[in-house]
Design a protein that fits this description.
The strands form two sheets. The chain has a six-stranded mixed sheet, sandwiched between helices. The protein has a four-stranded antiparallel sheet with strand order 2-1-4-5. By secondary structure, it is an alpha/beta fold. The protein folds into two domains: 169 residues, P-loop containing nucleotide triphosphate hydrolases (Rossmann fold); 69 residues, no CATH class. 35% of the residues are buried. Strand 1 and strand 2 form a beta hairpin.
Length: 245
């Protein structure tokens, strides 16, 4: 599970808190959607969760491991897909996946089996020996996804994971997310595509101006929004006085 307690982050030189006392608990077996407009604090929260961004107040626990006190143990439980392709694009696809597998200490036999499985699933088998810099946007997204889940981490942190994927690959990834959670694991993902969040998530939270304004199950959300679509409800709770989100 993912437990965020009183997370607060203020960037140097700024008086405004990018994340202000955020509290979230994402349970085993849940697909949890993390929504919010640009600049709301989503990326700051996500980067704090995965341990690449220091924060001054609060705690983050990944399946019982504190990201500050035991960063290596916590990070072993995380598979992270960023919203931009932070990837070694001078490597070939297979070199990158071999590297990611070795970082997490996956035994050789399991490494080969998993790489073959996911490369086949995401239609990358025929391009694994090509340099990643020659890949299309969608292919880079798929190699990032494979690299993140090869070590079978308990928590998947996915930042806009469906961006650039073809319909079949997007469907396959959503199926993997569901299968992952059925095993008692957790998916925490952000998306600007509200229809996807509505259909896929068990629960969602909406962050706006650094604060959580909604944290609810999808079933309870229906009562909150009444006759509004998720898009209309989202806009109503995140719109500023100037009419921007």
């Amino acid at each position: 599970m993912l437990k965020i307690t009183n997370l607060t982050k203020t960037y140097a030189g700024g008086g405004v808190k990018a994340v202000d006392c955020v509290n979230l608990t994402v349970l085993p077996g849940e697909i949890f959607g993390f929504l919010g407009p640009n600049g709301a604090g989503k990326s700051t929260t996500i980067k704090s969760v995965i341990g690449v961004l220091p924060f001054e107040e609060g705690t983050i626990e990944i399946f019982g491991e504190d990201i500050k006190k035991n960063p290596l143990a916590a990070k072993k439980n995380i598979g992270y897909v960023p919203d931009n392709h932070v990837i070694y694009d001078k490597l070939t696809g297979i070199e990158y996946l071999d590297f990611m597998a070795d970082v997490y200490g996956i035994p050789a036999a399991k490494k080969k089996e998993r790489i073959e499985k996911y490369a086949e699933l995401f239609s990358l088998k025929d391009v694994l020996n090509d340099p990643i810099k020659k890949y299309s946007h969608g292919m880079k997204q798929k190699i990032c996804v494979i690299g993140a889940i090869l070590h079978e981490p308990k928590l998947w942190v996915l930042d806009e994971p469906l961006t650039g994927l073809d319909p079949q690959s997007a469907y396959d990834l959503k199926q993997l997310m569901r299968e992952h959670c059925k095993k008692g694991n957790t998916v925490f993902f952000s998306s600007h595509v509200l229809d996807v969040a509505e259909k896929l998530c068990d629960r969602i939270a909406v962050i706006n101006k650094g604060k959580i304004v909604v944290d609810t199950s999808m079933s309870d959300l229906k009562a909150l929004r009444r006759d509004e679509t998720l898009e209309e409800y989202f806009l109503s709770i995140t719109r500023t006085e100037g009419g921007e989100v």
